[in-house]
Write a structure and sequence with these properties.
heterodimer, A: mainly alpha, Alpha-Beta Plaits, 2 domains, 8% strand, globular, B: alpha+beta, two-stranded antiparallel ribbon, two-stranded antiparallel sheet, 11 helices, binds iron/sulfur cluster
């Protein structure tokens, strides 16, 4: 049992963080708790610290909005965190959609759909094109284009303020990930994940691979939702420097030879590791 | 280019065209939704909101205003509401804005899409400066206009006797009663919706509509001759308007109106 829990330690920690955060936001609206107000688009902690989603704010800017000082401060705080710990930490530790897509991936695995499917293989770069398109459409339609359809915003707003018909988006994503494309939404399409990836490029918390311990079991590659970032496994000892790593720790849990671990890697070292 | 490259090049081109197709489909569907999703002109925004177009582009959709409202008057639009998704609005019949003197909704807004500066007149901040909409009365169904003594709206109005006034009129039906008709003064009505909420008719007979819909605008091409300042606008007209002097409008409009003899004479001369 303890071994089972140990093998899931990051997963459990992530779920606890995700649920606690969502509960704090929900409680603020439903019961007037004083920890945080707002949602993941913009929030204020302890009536003091502002947080604002940089991607949503950028879209607003392209839509022609005058960005208020409060927003800029909130963006600065979030960018600071993303720059240090990594933007896609948001994906695996905060974003509520992650639970849905992880659920779909889990079920896909259980049903052995990957072995059977010959479905469309999407490019992992589509998300970056969607970012560009979202900024263009924001400009053309004077409204934050992705925020109008964002399943992430629909989910956190839905949990805090009520869903309306918005839950169909989530069902759509679940079915898409389950039947059409493994890690389809989070690993290929979601522009927020893509944006946060870019922003956190030089974050200092990285997964580091130790080739000397690696026995080439490939368990990490099987567990990783962005397996292309583990291209060095079994070949060289260096940190995961590709930006798409969501810092979920699944590879660390999966590896029985401790060939992967989280550690702090300075920017200088990252440059060297890349070379 | 040698021949072995050819199939690969073909494959690449095919992939490009493929992606282009998907991309165009996605972009068009997305655009279609965006152009539809903001069409609602009838939505009422919290106090201090920017004009609808700027509001929709500036509001970050955080819901802090909703949480700040002690009366739960505000809601965030969901995808089912046909209001730009995630933006705050209120529905007077459900809950009107209660005109909090400390304006918690606009005070907390991080994006300034609810802008306290719009609630300031001569440096004085007051919720009474809010212009969320304008109450309009359907005189066919308003009980007071039917001759009953209602006064529900005026008693609900936080600016009673200013934003709504009661007028006395003889009721010719009985010749011994009076109509007590409510009349809204657009200079003072804040659009809070308390009157609409209070109205006892099945469908409210007093209804708050956004200013863009409910407030008229004469347009600059009408000039009222009985106000000297307004008449001066004729001289400030822009280039391509030609001002013809005929026999009848040689004098200023005001003089002309007062010149009864002249008018009568003109009628016969023409
Ligand atoms: S990729 Fe997008 S939806 Fe997935 S976890 Fe990250 S932000 Fe959430
Ligand atoms: S490399 Fe490891 S931490 Fe990064 S996304 Fe893959 S499994 Fe998660
Ligand atoms: S003024 Fe008060 S009642 Fe009206 S919307 Fe703001 S917080 Fe709510
Ligand atoms: S507080 Fe401001 S930015 Fe947030 S939802 Fe309300 S109006 Fe929009
Ligand atoms: S909306 Fe109605 S209650 Fe509110 S100020 Fe105007 S007339 Fe008065």
């Amino acid at each position: 049992m303890t071994r089972f829990l140990y093998k899931q330690r990051f997963l459990l920690a992530r779920r606890v963080v995700q649920v606690l955060l969502m509960t704090a936001y929900f409680g603020a609206n439903a019961y007037g708790w004083q920890i945080v107000v707002g949602n993941f688009s913009s929030a204020r902690y302890f009536g003091l610290i502002p947080l604002s989603d940089p991607y949503a704010t950028l879209q607003s800017f392209f839509a022609g909005a005058v960005i208020a000082t409060d927003m800029l401060m909130g963006v600065a705080v979030v960018l600071f965190f993303y720059a240090i710990i990594g933007g896609r930490f948001f994906c695996s530790w905060v974003c509520p959609v992650n639970m849905i897509t992880d659920g779909a991936a889990w079920l896909r695995e259980k049903l052995h759909l990957d072995e059977r499917s010959s479905g469309p293989v999407l490019s992992r770069h589509i998300r970056y094109w969607i970012i560009a398109l979202s900024l263009l459409l924001s400009y053309l339609f004077s409204v934050a284009a992705f925020e109008m359809i964002s399943p992430i915003a629909i989910t956190h707003r839905g949990i805090i303020f009520g869903f309306g018909f918005g839950w169909v988006f989530l069902v759509a994503i679940f079915l898409f990930d389950l039947f059409s494309q493994r890690h389809g939404w989070c690993g290929h399409l979601c522009p927020l994940g893509g944006f946060n990836a870019i922003v956190g490029k030089y974050s200092i918390i990285k997964v580091v691979h130790d080739k000397d311990r690696c026995i080439n079991a490939q368990a990490c590659l099987k567990a990783c939702p962005e397996e292309q970032v583990l291209d060095m496994v079994g070949k060289e000892s260096r940190p995961v420097t590709q930006i798409e790593c969501v810092k979920c720790g699944r590879c660390v849990e999966a590896c029985d030879s401790q060939a992967l671990s989280f550690s702090i890697v300075s920017i200088a070292e990252q440059m060297r590791g890349r070379a | 280019m040698n021949e072995t490259d050819e199939p690969e090049r073909r494959h690449f081109l095919l992939k490009m065209v493929n992606a282009l197709g998907y991309g165009a489909f996605g972009a068009i569907a997305w655009s279609a939704y965006l152009s539809q999703a903001q069409a609602n002109k009838l939505v009422l925004r919290p106090p201090g909101a920017l004009n609808e177009k700027d509001f929709v582009s500036t509001c970050i959709r955080c819901g802090m205003c909703v949480e700040a409202c002690p009366y739960d008057a505000l809601e965030l639009a969901t995808i089912s509401d046909q209001i730009s998704i995630g933006t705050p609005y209120f529905t007077p019949r459900v809950q009107a804005c209660q005109m909090c003197p400390d304006i918690p909704c606009a005070s907390i807004c991080p994006s300034k899409s609810l802008d306290l500066d719009l609630l300031r007149v001569d440096d004085e901040l007051s919720i009474d400066n809010a212009r969320m909409g304008l109450a309009t009365i359907n005189t066919e169904t308003c009980l007071a206009y039917l001759g009953l003594q209602c006064t529900m709206c005026i008693r609900a109005c936080p600016l009673a006797d200013t934003a709504i006034v009661l007028t006395n009129e003889r009721n010719p039906r009985t010749d011994m009663h009076a109509f007590l008709k409510p009349v809204v003064d657009p200079d003072f009505c804040t659009g809070c919706g308390m009157c609409e909420r209070a109205c006892p008719t099945e469908i409210a007979s007093i209804h708050v509509l956004p200013l863009s819909v409910s407030s008229g605008d004469v347009g600059s091409h009408y000039i009222v001759g009985w106000e000297e300042d307004d008449e001066k606008r004729i001289n400030q007209r822009s280039g391509d308007v030609i001002l013809d002097r005929t026999k009848r409008n040689q004098k200023s409009a005001l003089d002309n109106v007062n010149d009864v003899d002249g008018i009568l004479k003109g009628l016969y001369d023409d």
